[in-house]
Amino acid sequence: MIAEILSTGDEVLLGDIVDTNSGFLCEKLLDLGITVSQITAVGDEVGQISRTLDQIAQRADICLVTGGLGPTSDDLTALGCARAAGEELILNSNAVETMALFFQKRGFEIDQANKKQAMLPASAGVLPNTNGTAPGFFMRMGQCCFYFMPGVPSEMMSMYTDAVKPRLVDNFGLTSQILIERLTIFGLGESRVGSLLKGFENKFAGMHLGFRAKFPFVEVKIVYPVKIKSDRAGNTDRKQLDAASKWVLGCLENKVISKTGQSLEQEVGSLLKEKQFTLAIAESCTGGLISNLVTDVAGSSDYFLFSAVTYSNEAKMNILKVSQKTLETYGAVHEQTALEMARGVRYAANSDWGISTTGIAGPGGGTQDKPVGTVCIGIAGPGIETSKRYTFNFGSRSANKEMFAATALELLRRNLIGK
């Protein structure tokens, strides 16, 4: 089965937006045992949309299309589809009905401008949009079944889940699925991870590994295509995947920070929540990056209390109570300074844990004793007060800051799990 994704819109080609829709759809199709063979992006030009749809209709079995279904003049997907199919655009009564219901629930009446969105190819069926005004539609052209969805991610996601996925399962009689185990790695490069896992495919027949580097982490995917079977047989598949995961964990040892594909900040948040601990953060060289990562996790208000970006020595002394003698003796970038920062922020917030960073992100400011890439990280928690010094240099200020932040969170994670 050949599946493709088509994304329409000048904003994608111009780089104004990132096409996250295609990533979502690839992942969801993979859950059904369908691997996408090609992703295409085209602009808001009717002829180009029409030609691309015609080409896909001749080579693919399934195509999911996003974008170009709104009320404005640059929403041309339906017209491009009609031209490719050799059909007229008609006012689809079912589409009008779903739109009218959407407006009615919000106390508005559908107007003529919005009715443009209900102009669909004559043979199209309607995909209701529960989160927006533009209905989707589906139809067959050539050998391919097309499913057209809005480009707004929230609308696309709900339409896929509620309307497209059930049709895919029913229309194609899907009998297979792909089981995936995701592991998050920190402290090893992608090539080193691949080397350590060499021989996996020989040991676990029918499975393969996928790797994705997203600095400073590496994601390892264990991919296992299986037939949809009875629960008993499905348990056997699950046990085989668990055995493969256990082997990978053994090869990578303590470099695996998540066995479920979570980010480092999600893992830290889960541990803090589970143990009912609270956290405060003091940052110098990371400039608030750690706090941003921590608070990007939904529910972080359950454990995150306070952060302070104490860039100057005066701020370190006045807010975190770092002693003037420490700064005069050792300087801002030192293990003792980091320790007093962690201790101070923990005290200021009355939190269970305090972590801190102070360092030299670059590109300037380094010395022979403290080169660019030096970071000192402090940890203060129940029964522990410690600090460590590291030297990284990844060639850019932003990369160094990312590594500093990740290392601080990893130190906290290890302390939370007793390692």
Characterization of the model:
This protein folds into three domains: 170 residues, Molybdenum Cofactor Biosythetic Enzyme, Chain A (3-Layer(aba) Sandwich); 83 residues, Alpha-Beta Plaits; 153 residues, CinA-like (Maf protein, Alpha-Beta Complex), CATH 3.90.950. β10 and β11 form a beta hairpin. The chain has a six-stranded mixed sheet, with helices on both faces. A five-stranded mixed sheet has the order 14-13-15-16-17, sandwiched between helices. With 419 residues, the protein is an alpha/beta fold. α2 runs parallel beside α7, α3 crosses α4 and α11 packs parallel to α16. Helices cover 42% and strands 25% of the residues. It has 16 helices and 17 strands.
Beta-sheet strand percentage? 25-35%
Strand order of the largest sheet: 2-1-3-8-7-6
Structure classification: alpha/beta
Name the CATH homologous superfamily of the largest domain.
MoaB/Mog-like domain
* CATH topology term of the largest domain: Molybdenum Cofactor Biosythetic Enzyme, Chain A
Helix content: 40-55%
The DSSP helix count reads 16
Determine and state the CATH class of the largest domain. Alpha Beta
C-alpha-based Rg, rounded: 27 Å
Question: What number of domains?
Answer: 3
What does the average pLDDT come to? 93
Outline the biggest β-sheet.
Answer: 6 strands, mixed
- Give the overall form: elongated
Question: Distance between termini?
Answer: 47 Å
| Low-pLDDT regions | none
For this structure, the quaternary state is: single chain
